[in-house]
From TrEMBL:
GO terms for molecular function: DNA binding. Belongs to the ROK (NagC/XylR) family. Pfam families: ROK. This is ROK family protein. It comes from Nocardioides agri. InterPro entries: ATPase_NBD, ROK, WH-like_DNA-bd_sf, WH_DNA-bd_sf. It comes from the Bacteria. GO terms for biological process: regulation of DNA-templated transcription.
Length: 407
């Protein structure tokens, strides 16, 4: 890239982010929104078109004077890859710049029966398949962000403690770099933080002050305030699952007793709802299939399933009330397996929230359920990988091949 492009990259970033956050705009509207001259806005749009990052998208309607051509993000040129390591699966997703899914892979596994190296091997193979899918459609991967369940030493990209994985001091970043030799940046992040990033939709004012609670075998999440993820002093914020809510209760994978995830995690639900030999507890069964079966049993009125759901919903509400008293978010977004069972869980969660929050009407905090299913963390990972392009669009090489409208 020439030096002139580098100088202009902050304004290129402003234009690209405005189109992402606010949707298609005319050049004149972009100039007004960003305090630029029309000539400057047109020049910036032309450069982004050359990079294959924006395109013309019809004509602006309802304006005064001669209608202008709308400009929108053209996501086809680049993709971010997100990946996740969890107790029951490894997974990947590739999103293009406009947020569309280009490729997606998931492999069910039981991490307790595998070594950390074996799990990293399986994830690396999924990443290679996803990378190949991206390149097959003519796009370029610009980064990979891996979410992992547990306490992450971000500076060293080492999973310091993964209670439910049974991992301690595993160099996830170095291990994947050695396996992949990727030509693009690779980062590692806590999966709950990535799920929170995925839920904090840019441009949606209702999603800028939220608490995301992500439930699988463990329970974690993230805090988004003013549209920004709060990581805490050393980056360990969001380990909600290890709040003590039942002193003298069950022992947690972390070694302590009575943690929230011992009564609200998927393992707690399955223990209450099914015998050890019940197929719904088979680790080889996908999480989506497990949740579908639990919903089916509940809808048929199975008393054991209903009782288990009520028990877990009550505990989810207890923890949500504690967090609401401390943080007063605009919304608590329940993700992971909580979202898959939202219809069954909502009444008791809201009842416990109302009972447990000191402020009137739960302090204005509403309960929402994620629509991303079990893909929240990998989507957040892909979004983080794509931030490099929004920060500096000149990282992308011009895409002459896109002029004809094909990949």
């Amino acid at each position: 890239m020439q030096g002139g492009s580098r100088v202009r990259s902050p304004n290129l970033s402003l234009v690209l982010r405005q189109l992402r956050d606010q949707g298609p705009r005319s050049r004149a509207r972009l100039a007004t929104d960003l305090g630029l001259t029309r000539s400057a806005a047109s020049t910036l749009v032309a450069e982004l078109e050359e990079l294959g990052l924006v395109r013309t998208a019809g004509v602006e309607r309802g304006g005064v004077g001669r209608p202008g051509s709308l400009v929108e993000i053209d996501g086809r040129a680049v993709c971010g890859i997100g990946a996740e390591i969890n107790v029951n699966h490894v997974s990947t997703i590739a999103l293009d710049l406009s947020g569309q899914v280009v490729a997606e892979h998931r492999l069910a596994l039981d991490a307790h029966r595998l070594t950390a190296d074996e799990v990293l091997d399986k994830l690396a193979e999924l990443v290679r398949r996803t990378d190949a899918d991206v390149r097959t459609v003519g796009a370029t991967p610009v980064g990979l962000t891996v979410g992992v369940a547990g306490l992450l030493d971000s500076a060293r990209e080492v999973l310091a403690v993964g209670p439910n994985l049974g991992w301690r001091d595993v160099p996830v970043g170095a291990g994947l770099r050695a396996r992949l030799g990727a030509a693009y940046p690779l980062g590692v992040e806590n999966e709950g933080n990535l799920a929170a990033i995925a839920e904090a939709v840019p441009g949606d004012a209702t999603r800028q002050d939220i608490l995301v609670i992500f439930g699988e075998v463990g329970v974690g999440g993230g805090i988004v305030a003013g549209g920004r993820l709060l990581r805490g002093h050393q980056g360990y914020a969001g380990e909600f699952g290890h709040m003590i809510v039942e002193p003298g209760g069950r022992r947690c994978g972390c070694g302590r007793v009575g943690c929230w995830e011992t009564v609200a995690g998927l393992r707690a639900l399955l223990d209450a709802a099914a015998d050890p030999d019940d197929p719904v507890r088979d680790p080889a069964l996908s999480l989506d299939d497990r949740i579908a079966e639990i919903n089916r049993r509940a809808d048929l009125g199975d008393t054991r399933t209903r009782a288990a759901l009520d028990q877990v919903a009550g505990w989810i509400g207890v923890g949500a009330a504690l967090l609401t008293n401390a943080l007063n978010p605009a919304a608590i977004v329940l993700s992971g397996y909580f979202a898959g069972l939202g219809q069954q869980l909502r009444p008791l969660i809201e009842e416990q929230l109302q009972a447990g929050v000191l402020a009137p009407y739960s302090g204005g905090t509403r309960v929402e359920f994620s629509t991303l299913g079990f893909t929240a963390a990998v989507r957040g990972g892909a979004a983080v990988a794509l931030e490099a392009v929004f920060d500096d669009p000149t990282l992308v090489a011009p895409r002459a091949a896109l002029v004809g409208g094909t990949r």
